[in-house]
Amino acid sequence: KQLVLFGPGYFLDQNLNNGLNPFEAQINNILFQSGAENSKIISCSLGAIQIGSNNIILKRNRITGAISGSTGISGIIIQQNFIGPYNAGNVIVLNGDNIVISNNIIVGNTNLYISSSGLIKNNVMDLGPYQTSINGMIFENNILIGGPFSGSNNIIRNNIGYNTQVDINLLFTLTGNEDAKYILKDGSPAKGAGVNGIDAGVFGGDEPYVLSGIPPIPTIYEATVSSTATNKDGLSVQIKAKTN
Questions:
Q1: Cα distances (Å, whole numbers) of residue 227 to 43, 208, 231, 237, 241
Q2: What is the pLDDT of residues 155-167, one digit of tens each?
Q3: 75: left (phi over 0), alpha (psi -120 to 50) or beta
């Protein structure tokens, strides 16, 4: 069936200091079967994901397992996720149509194989010595660190590290936790290097990466609840929230 699942995000004890419960909403393994079309999972901590239905959205999650899909799937959006680390294997293997992979941090000694029509933009791919193999996609505004790139029938433009590797110390602040360290530093060659002058990397574009994958719904970070209630006045509750 169609479901929309929201979690609280991840790395909450590292990026935020506002009283939020630091625990993640964890789902070990997921299989999207026929009938799950138009489902969304947002701001959760996920393991392996197998996609067997169309029009699936994975957004602002921490994903520690491989993402794979049935041949011919379409309308898949993988956006603003922290993917990895996933050692010595394949992190994303997809073969379909109209697939969008944007503003993700993808890390670990992993291979990435995508044969599709669609768009791959504004990602950071820190894959160690492993390879990125892309076929039939628009590939733009990405930052590639580490292994080789291969593919055919792509439109490739305004990427950093595509042909010649760039020193990671010149690109990012490299301070903070796992995702904050990919913020571009002052004077980074990735600033303004994307198509139409936007920043390359995950913090550029219309929907930039959100630290800790905070969900796009209000977050209650403080609640004061009275210890007593009456039939006349009910229960007094005061909350503080962020809109996100």
A1: 32, 42, 14, 10, 21
A2: 999 999 865 677 8
A3: left
Residues 139/117, Cβ–Cβ less than 8 Å: no
CB distance 91 to 74 below 8 Å: no
User: E strands along 44-108, which residues?
Assistant: 45-51, 57-59, 62-63, 67-69, 73-74, 77-79, 82-83, 89-97, 99-102, 105-107
Nearest to 119 by CA among 141, 149, 88: 141
Distance CA 15, CA 152 (A): 39
Q: Could you report the per-residue pLDDT of 192-219, keeping only the tens digit for each?
A: 999 999 999 999 999 999 999 999 988 8
C-alpha span between 169 and 140 (Å, rounded): 22
pLDDT at 19 over 60: no
pTM of the model: 0.90
- 3: tokens are 């479901």
CA–centroid distance for 121 within its chain:
12
Please give the structure tokens belonging to residue 227.
């210890």
Rounded CA gap, 74 and 54, in Å? 5
| 216's tokens | 């796009």
